[in-house]
Amino acid sequence: MDFFSRLIVNLAYFLNTSDGYQQKKRFFYDILENNRYQPKKYFDLFMMSLIFLSVAILIAEVKNDVHDFIKFFNIYIISIIFFIEYLLRFWISSSASEIVISCSEHDTMLGRRFNLSRAVLKILKAKSKFILSIRAIIDLLAILPFFHELRLLRLFVLFRVFKLFRYTTSFQVFASVLSTKKFEFLILLMFTSIVVFVSSVLVYIMEANNPDSPINTLFDALYWSIVTISTVGYGDVTAITVEGRTVAIFVIIAGISVLAFTTSIVVSAFTEKLDEIREIKTVDDIRKLKHFYLICGYEGVAQEVAAKLKKQKVKIIVLDESEHRIASAKKDGIVALNYDPGNIESYRKIGVDLNTQVKAVLCLRESDVENVYTTLTVRSISKKVNMISLLMDESNRKKLEFAGVNEILYPKGLVGMISKELIGRPVAFEVIHALRNDYYGVSVEEILVDSRIHENIIYLNELNSISFKIVLLGIYKKDKKRFFFNPLENTLLESGDYLLVIGNSAFIKEFEKYLHKKIRT
Amino acid sequence: MKNRVALIFGYNDYALEIAKNIVDSYNKIYIYSLQSEQDTVKNSSEFEIRSFDLSDKWDDINEFVDIKHSIAFCVLEDNAENIFLTISLRSSFPDLNIIALSNNKETANKLQMAGANRVIPLVQTTAEMIAEMMEKPIVKEVFHNILFENSTLKIAQIRINGTNSYIGKEIIELDWDKKYGVIALSIMYENMRNEFIYSSIIKHYRVKEGDSFVIVGYEIDIKEFEKIVGSECD
Questions:
Q1: What is the tens place of the pLDDT at every residue in A313-332?
Q2: Which of A61, A321, A439, B160 is paired with A165 by a 20 to 30 Å CA distance?
């Protein structure tokens, strides 16, 4: 390897292993391309504002004198910002250092001398792929108004509008939906082109020698043909001969067909992609959620749990691989995705942080095999997230525990315990069941004593719960992990304690509000 | 001689869990199976398995079971069979206490119509526990301990006897939490209607002889309270 090649390879390794360089590149990638990166939203908004501002200045310039600074701002500052953006996109589009390293390692493996020119060729290929992409071309055209001396180039300001495609997802979705019907559009375009070509030539032949006809050139004929086939029909250029009008009849009929065909292609593209569009929107909304429960599976118990949590206005997301069950969840008004909860790819697609955004993952399939599988999948992504699972067969308890479930609920065991209560203390059991379910408007709630409440209320007798017609069942001291039933009035309240209160749900809410508003006198 | 027994219809995990939990409360537990021969072979539990048929007239049960003080659990996995069994038992034994298991609200309603005294809504109860684990973990822990674990905190039903000093007093005047360390949750009138004492409708209701209260308190306080105001029902 000659000195220059070695220098290039060393430089490539240096850049590839340099934390500072990689971090900067990652940052610019996130801000320009990563839709999940929160600051990108602000960058996009900034760029969109520049685009609208630029177009507004262009319009204002047509009939008004615009201040020199505004002109300067429009021509230079905005163009320079767009140019910097273009260069950054060019930089992050591919990694030249990685290409050099890959070529060097490939040649070393094959026992060949490193071929620098092959590596340069590959880099050029990768970079030209970016330069020739439609988006990059639009970006480049949007910079052209910089050369404002060429007056025509000022019109390229309008290309800046096309840049909006980059910054708004809805435009991107629209383009991607239409791109699914490329073949149909191509056929339509060919059909239209043939009709326009044939009709233009025909009408030119029929009309050009008639001194009264407005169609005198082939361009007039082409203009007439396009205006007619598009069903616009301005009427400024019309065929006046019988032959020309006969051609017009065919072009009009063809025009109606083209319009109908175009409409049907667009409509069918959107109909076919409607579920996908909705899914994109749902995933986007889920990513914005701060805290929610992830329910895996939507069978009997899961349906009830979802209904109960929904009633408590808690945010829940359901994942299930069955289309039928997902349809049922959506019918119940629950945000649901037809993703397999046992597949790691599902969580990548959703793109949420299980550690911070998800309060708990509930594995509620009525199959221990599925629940163990889902648990292992989730645990492979997050060791921290709280996981609760249903257990259908007691012999599988250890497997679920081993997979990493934090809490297990065994319905069959629950039936045994309930039966014991029902034969022993039936009324007591029903009372607690009713309390848990907020029957008759009476419920039991836990209220956290936060630092604000603690600042204003020191002893229990200051709570004033009696005037809210609620009863304090007890206090749970979190640090001691102990529940103190019916505590004495002079019990000291501490920050982090939980008050367990029973009473009318509306009164409890009022009491909670009062606790937060109360100021010590 | 007729015995106080528990009859569990259906040989499955539910039946075995129920049997395990109630074994101390009855003289004998019988598990009835629709396929008794197969189930007897695989039965590794301590409980006796007997056979039954949905068309049975239950004559043999009448011979050895003290119907009034016994209990039947209908836990067949097929909902239709379970309802049919319940209605069949009710038509033969009007005094038998029947508890049935249901998987959904529709079945629960039908089981009640078929004559079950109590229905365990399995799915609903499981969901209730899970939702509580998530949103009210402390409530779940406290109630779970009161109901199912050997905690010193207990729930009991106290009937007000004739000599009680609280007879004639309004609900709002009850001071049991301060005086006896117990908290009353609900009242059950003589006609068996149950109402929470936190309901604003009943705060001026005057306590009558025969009314029952569901109270929560430490075991020792409940016993003390029982001596003073009445008798414990359960």
A1: 889 999 999 999 999 999 99
A2: A61
What chain A holds in terms of domains, given with CATH numbers, is 3-167 (no CATH), 182-275 (1.10.287.70), 289-413 (3.40.50.720), 427-517 (3.30.70.1450)
Structure tokens at A492: 């000291």
CA dihedral A305, A308, A310, A313 (to 10 degrees): -130
Q: Which residues of chain B neighbour A411 with C-beta distances below 8 Å? A: 122-123, 125-126
Q: What is the rounded end-to-end Cα distance, in angstroms, of chain A?
A: 84
Report how far apart the first and last C-alpha atoms of chain B are (Å, whole number).
26
ipTM of the complex, rounded to two decimals: 0.82
Point out the residue among B128, B157, B195 whose CB comes nearest to the CB of A428. Answer: B157
- What one-letter code names the amino acid at A449? V
pLDDT for position A198: 93
Q: What is the pLDDT of residues A59-87, one digit of tens each?
A: 888 788 888 888 888 878 888 898 899 99
Partners of residue B73 in chain A, C-beta under 8 Å: 419
- B93 and B168 fall within a common domain: no
Confidence band (pLDDT; 50, 70, 90) for A520? low
Neighbouring CB atoms inside 10 A of B149's CB total 10
B22-35 pLDDT tens trace:
888 888 888 888 87
A418 and chain B: CB distance < 8 Å anywhere?
A: yes
Q: Could you give the CA distance from residue A325 to residue A208 in angstroms, rounded to a whole number?
A: 68
> Could you give the 3-state DSSP secondary structure of residue A387?
strand
Find the CB nearest A412 among B17, B142, B214: B17
pLDDT at residue B93 in the model: 87
How large is the greatest C-alpha to C-alpha distance in chain A, in angstroms? 111
Tell which phi-psi region holds residue A440, choosing left (phi > 0), alpha (psi between -120 and 50) or beta.
Answer: left
Distance between CA atoms of residues A12 and A100, nearest Å: 6
Cβ-based contacts under 8 A for chains A and B: 197
Q: Are residues B17 and B85 in the same domain?
A: yes
**DSSP string covering A267-307, please?**
HHHHHHHHHHHHHHHHHHHHHH-SSEEEEE--SHHHHHHHH
Task: Check A390 against B126: CB less than 8 A apart.
Answer: yes
Residue A152, pLDDT score: 57
Nearest to B199 among A422, A432, A440 (CB): A440
Range of lowest pLDDT (A84-98, A152-166, A262-276): A152-166
Residues 6+ apart with CB under 8 A from A193: none
Q: Which residue pairs from B37-45 have beta carbons closer than 8 angstroms and sit at least 24 positions apart in sequence?
A: B39/B11, B43/B11, B45/B16, B45/B19
Residue B230, strand partner residues: B160
